C-alpha cells in the first residue's frame, strides 16, 4: 500500500490539476506492475509503470524504447520519468493484445469463418513481421548486450533446475546430465552460428498490441515488454512469434509467413541464410533453446513466485519441443530423455 501511495503522489505532481483514477492494466512475469490512469475530464488515458528499483531497473526499458522508436516501431511514448523511484508515465496503447484479437470471442464454426480468421491473422502477423524487419534493419553491434553463449546456456539450465527437478521431481543420473549437456552444446553451436540483429526477446502475441485506427494510436502493432532486448540470433524473435506459448497455428500457415519474411529479408539485405531450408533449421533450433528456457521459467513462476497461470501453457511449449526433436536426428537423445521422464501428452490441439 505504501508503494501505491508513493505512486499516486508522484502522479499528482506529474499531472498537476488533473483529477485521475488508477486501475490495474496488466502484469508480466517480472516485478513490474502497470496501471491505467483515467481522467475525469475525458482526456486520453495513460499508463504508469511501477518498477521497484530494488528489483527492476527502468533504464534498459528507456534505452530500448528509444532504439525501437528510432527504427520506426510503435512503442509507448514516455511522458514523465522518475528512474530513481522506478516510475514511468507512458502513452496508452490500449488493452487489446494480438492474443485477444486472434482468439476472438468465438472459434470459427465453418470453413468461411475459418478462412476469414486466418486472413485476419495473416494480416496482423504481416504487420508484426514488417515492424520486426525494420527493427532488424536498424541493428548494430555494441548497443545492446550480446546474446552470448553464457546467457543462452544459463537460460537452458532453467530446464533441468526448475522444470525437471523442481516441477517434475526428477533427479537426473550422471549419464542423463551428460546427455543433456551434450545436447545443449549442440544447440548452442547452431544458435551462435546465426547472424546477429537486435532481438526483442519476447516478440509474441501478449506483447503485441492491436491498435484501433479510430483511436488515433498509429499503425500496428504496438510493442511492449521490450526491456530485455539483446543483440543475437536473427531467428529468435521469429521463434517467439510463431512458436508462441499462448496460441498455436497450423504449420502450413507458419511456413507461408516464414517464407514471406525470408524473401523480404533477403531483399532488404538482412543477413538471413541463402537457402530457406537452412534458415528454417536455424528457426527450429532457436525454438528448441527457447522452449527449454520457457518451460523452466514457467515452472519457476509457479514454484517461486506463486504465479500458477502459466502451468496451463506448458503442454503446448513441450509439444513444440518434441516436434522439433522428432525432426532432427541430433536432438534424438533429448527426445528419448523427454519420453522417459515426461511421457507425451497427446491431448495438445490447435487453436484457430
Automatic annotation (TrEMBL):
InterPro entries named in the record: Aminoglycoside_PTrfase (IPR002575), Kinase-like_dom_sf (IPR011009)
Gene3D superfamilies: 3.90.1200.10, Phosphorylase Kinase, domain 1
This protein's record includes keyword ATP-binding: yes
Keywords: ATP-binding, Nucleotide-binding, Transferase
Pfam families per record: APH
GO MF: ATP binding; transferase activity
Domain (Aminoglycoside phosphotransferase): residue spans on this chain: 22-261
The name this protein goes by in its record: Aminoglycoside phosphotransferase
Species, as recorded: Thauera terpenica 58Eu
Amino acid at each position: 500500500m505504501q508503494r501505491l501511495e508513493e505512486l499516486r503522489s508522484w502522479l499528482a505532481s506529474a499531472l498537476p490539476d488533473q483529477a485521475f483514477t488508477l486501475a490495474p492494466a496488466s502484469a508480466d512475469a517480472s516485478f513490474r506492475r502497470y496501471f491505467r490512469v483515467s481522467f475525469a475530464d475525458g482526456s486520453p488515458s495513460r499508463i504508469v509503470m511501477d518498477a521497484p528499483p530494488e528489483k527492476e531497473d527502468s533504464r534498459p526499458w528507456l534505452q530500448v524504447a528509444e532504439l525501437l522508436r528510432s527504427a520506426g516501431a510503435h512503442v509507448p511514448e514516455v511522458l514523465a520519468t522518475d528512474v530513481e523511484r522506478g516510475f514511468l508515465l507512458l502513452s496508452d496503447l490500449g488493452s487489446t493484445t494480438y492474443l485477444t484479437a486472434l482468439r476472438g470471442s468465438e472459434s470459427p464454426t465453418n470453413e468461411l469463418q475459418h478462412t476469414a480468421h486466418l486472413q485476419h491473422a495473416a494480416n496482423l502477423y504481416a504487420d508484426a513481421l514488417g515492424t520486426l524487419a525494420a527493427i532488424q534493419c536498424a541493428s548494430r553491434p555494441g548497443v545492446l548486450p550480446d546474446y552470448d553463449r553464457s546467457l543462452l546456456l544459463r537460460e537452458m539450465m532453467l530446464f533441468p533446475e526448475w522444470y525437471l527437478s523442481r516441477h517434475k521431481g526428477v533427479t537426473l543420473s550422471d549419464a542423463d546430465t551428460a546427455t543433456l549437456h551434450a545436447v545443449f552444446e549442440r544447440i548452442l553451436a547452431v544458435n551462435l552460428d546465426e547472424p546477429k540483429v537486435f532481438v526483442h526477446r519476447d516478440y509474441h502475441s501478449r506483447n503485441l498490441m492491436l491498435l484501433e485506427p479510430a483511436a488515433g494510436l498509429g499503425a500496428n502493432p504496438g510493442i511492449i515488454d521490450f526491456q530485455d532486448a539483446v543483440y543475437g540470433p536473427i531467428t529468435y524473435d521469429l521463434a517467439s512469434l510463431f512458436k508462441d506459448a499462448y496460441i498455436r497455428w497450423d504449420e502450413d500457415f507458419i511456413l507461408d509467413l516464414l517464407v514471406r519474411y525470408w524473401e523480404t529479408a533477403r531483399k532488404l539485405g538482412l543477413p538471413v541464410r541463402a537457402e530457406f531450408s537452412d534458415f528454417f533449421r536455424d528457426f527450429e533450433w532457436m525454438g528448441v533453446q527457447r522452449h527449454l528456457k520457457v518451460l523452466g521459467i514457467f515452472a519457476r513462476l509457479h514454484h517461486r513466485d506463486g504465479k500458477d497461470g502459466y502451468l496451463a501453457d506448458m503442454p503446448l511449449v513441450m509439444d513444440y519441443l518434441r516436434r522439433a526433436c522428432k525432426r532432427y536426428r541430433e536432438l534424438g537423445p533429448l527426445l528419448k530423455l523427454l519420453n522417459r521422464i515426461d511421457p507425451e501428452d497427446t491431448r495438445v490441439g490447435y487453436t484457430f
